[in-house]
Design goal:
The chain is α+β, with helices and mostly antiparallel strands. Helices cover 25% and strands 23% of the residues. Among the domains are: 77 residues, RNA polymerase II/Efflux pump adaptor protein, barrel-sandwich hybrid domain (OB fold (Dihydrolipoamide Acetyltransferase, E2P), Beta Barrel); 197 residues, Chloramphenicol Acetyltransferase. The strands form 5 sheets. It has a 6-stranded mixed beta sheet. Helix 2 packs parallel to helix 3 and helix 8 packs across helix 10. The longest helix is centred in the middle third of the chain and has 16 residues. 34% of the residues are buried.
C-alpha cells in the first residue's frame, strides 16, 4: 500500500514552510533515516529524514515551492514489491493534487460534491459564493477571515491555483489579482454583487516603493524575501503595535570589567568577549530581580523560574536570537563556548528550533559596530530587551575630581503591562552593580 510523505512540523509553531531541496528523485529507493529533503522554516533550513522504507513513486511538491502547509502531501512512497501502477486508483492519488487534501474536518473536498448532489455543481450560497469550493491553505483562510476578505474573488498563486498567505498579504495591500472573468456571470445573480466589495483597496493606501521607483524611473533591483526576513518583519510589527514599550537608560563604567577580562584571557584557558560578561551579568541581575523575568498574558502573569537569555545575532537572512539557557548558573567559559557555537550555526542556518525559541530575556549588542546607544524592539512574548552600546572614554567626576573612564550606555526596552518602571530601574541598578564590580559575578 502506498505511503503518503507529509510536510513535517519542524517546530511547535510551524504552520507552513518552503520545500527548499529534494535529495531524492522519483524512482530512488529510501530507507528509514535517509535524508530525503530540506525544508526552510522561519529561521533555519532543516533536513527531513525518511520514516518508512520504499521507493519514491511520485513527487507532488517541487523544489522551491513556498507556503507548503504542514501535513500537506509532498510525495508518495511505494512499499517493497509495489510499482508505479499502485499510484493509480488508490487512496494516495486522490491527494496527488495539493489542493485536494482536506484542510479542516468541516470543509468537504470539491471533487466529492457531484456524488453527493444530483445537481451539476454546488451553487453559491446567499453571499454569492461557496467558501468550501475555494482551495486555500488553512493559514490563508484564517488570515482572510480576520481581514474580512472574500476568498472567492481572489486568484491563488500557489500550486494549482491554491490561495496562500502571500495572496492574502497582497489583498490586504490592495495588490491581489482578481479571479478570472469566469466568475462574472454569477456576480450578476441576485445577492451576488456584495461579494465583490471586500477586497477593495483602502482609500488611504499609497504607492509602495516599487511603484514609486517605476513611476519616477529610479533604477533598482529586487531581492526576494526569505522566510526569515518575513518572520522578522511580522514579529517586529506585532511588537510595536501590540506591546506598550517604555525605555530606561543608564551609563555604566567598564574599566573594572575590561581589566578582569584581560586577566582571565591572559591565563589562556578561554578567550572571553565583553559580550560574554554582559550575558552573565544580565542573567545574574534577573536572578536578583525576578520580577523582570516575566511575560504578560491576558489571563495571568508568567513568572519564569529559569533564566534563558536570547542574544541577537545578525545573519545574511535576518536577525535571529539563539538562547543561552540557565545563563545565571553557567560559568563564563561555558557561556563563551556556547555563544560561539550558536552564533556560527545561526549564520549557517543550522540552529534547531529549540535553540532560538523560548528565551525569557533578550540582549542586543551593537557596541562592536561603534553604536553609542539605541533602543531595541521587544521580542514577544518576552517583556524586556537590553540594548548595549559601545564603551567610550568619557570625563567623569570621582571623589570631586575629574577623571577619565570607559563608559557604556545601556537601554532597557520594557513591556509596561508586565514590568513597571520601578522594577525596570531596579533591574538596571543590579546589572550596573555587577558590571562595575565584576568579581561579584564569580561568587
Amino acid at each position: 500500500m502506498t505511503i503518503n510523505i507529509l510536510m513535517p512540523a519542524l517546530s511547535p509553531t510551524m504552520t507552513e514552510g518552503t520545500l527548499a531541496t529534494w535529495h531524492k528523485k522519483e524512482g530512488d529507493k529510501v530507507k528509514s533515516g535517509d535524508v530525503i529533503a530540506e525544508i526552510e522554516t522561519d529561521k533555519a533550513t532543516m533536513e527531513v529524514e525518511a520514516v518508512d522504507e520504499g521507493t519514491i513513486g511520485k513527487i507532488l511538491v517541487a523544489e522551491g515551492t513556498e507556503n507548503v502547509p504542514v501535513n500537506e502531501i509532498i510525495a508518495i512512497l511505494l512499499e517493497e514489491g509495489e510499482d508505479a501502477g499502485a499510484l493509480k486508483g488508490g487512496a494516495a492519488p486522490a491527494a496527488a493534487k495539493p489542493e485536494a487534501k482536506a484542510e479542516a474536518p468541516a470543509e468537504p473536498k470539491a471533487e466529492a460534491a457531484p456524488a453527493a448532489q444530483p445537481a451539476p455543481a454546488a451553487k453559491p450560497a446567499a453571499n454569492g459564493h461557496d467558501d468550501s469550493r475555494v482551495f486555500a491553505s488553512p493559514l490563508a483562510r484564517r488570515m482572510a477571515q480576520q481581514a474580512g476578505i472574500d476568498l472567492a474573488v481572489l486568484q491563488g498563486s500557489g500550486p494549482h491555483g491554491r490561495i496562500v498567505k502571500a495572496d492574502i498579504d497582497a489583498a490586504v495591500s490592495g495588490g491581489a489579482p482578481a479571479k478570472p472573468a469566469a466568475a462574472a456571470p454569477e456576480a450578476a445573480k441576485p445577492g451576488a454583487a456584495p461579494a465583490a466589495a471586500p477586497t477593495a483597496k483602502p482609500a488611504s493606501a499609497g504607492p509602495n516603493a516599487k511603484q514609486l521607483a517605476d513611476a519616477y524611473g529610479i533604477p533598482y533591483s529586487e531581492q526576494k524575501h526569505s522566510n526569515m526576513r518575513k518572520t522578522v518583519a511580522r514579529r517586529l510589527l506585532e511588537s510595536k503595535q501590540t506591546v506598550p514599550h517604555f525605555y530606561l537608560t543608564v551609563d555604566i563604567e567598564l574599566d573594572a570589567l575590561l581589566k578582569l577580562r584581560k586577566e582571565l584571557n591572559d591565563r589562556g584557558d578561554v578567550k572571553l568577549s565583553v559580550n560574554d560578561l554582559i550575558i552573565k551579568a544580565a542573567a545574574l541581575a534577573l536572578r536578583k530581580v525576578p520580577a523582570a523575568n516575566a511575560s504578560w498574558t491576558d489571563d495571568a502573569m508568567i513568572n519564569y523560574e529559569r533564566v534563558d537569555v536570547s542574544v541577537a545575532v545578525a545573519t545574511p537572512g535576518g536577525l535571529i536570537t539563539p538562547i543561552i539557557k540557565d545563563a545565571d548558573r553557567k560559568g563564563l567559559g561555558t557561556i563563551s563556548g556556547e555563544m560561539k557555537d550558536l552564533a556560527a550555526r545561526a549564520r549557517d542556518g543550522k540552529l534547531k528550533p529549540e535553540e532560538y525559541q523560548g528565551g525569557t530575556f533578550s540582549i542586543s549588542n551593537l557596541g562592536m559596530f561603534g553604536v553609542k546607544d539605541f533602543a531595541a524592539i521587544i521580542n514577544p512574548p518576552q517583556s524586556c530587551i537590553l540594548a548595549v552600546g559601545a564603551g567610550t572614554q568619557q570625563p567623569v567626576v570621582k571623589d570631586g575630581a575629574l577623571a577619565i573612564a570607559t563608559v557604556m550606555s545601556c537601554t532597557l526596552s520594557v513591556d509596561h503591562r508586565a514590568v513597571d518602571g520601578a522594577v525596570g530601574a531596579e533591574y538596571l541598578a543590579a546589572f550596573r552593580a555587577l558590571i562595575e564590580a565584576p568579581l561579584s559575578m564569580m561568587l
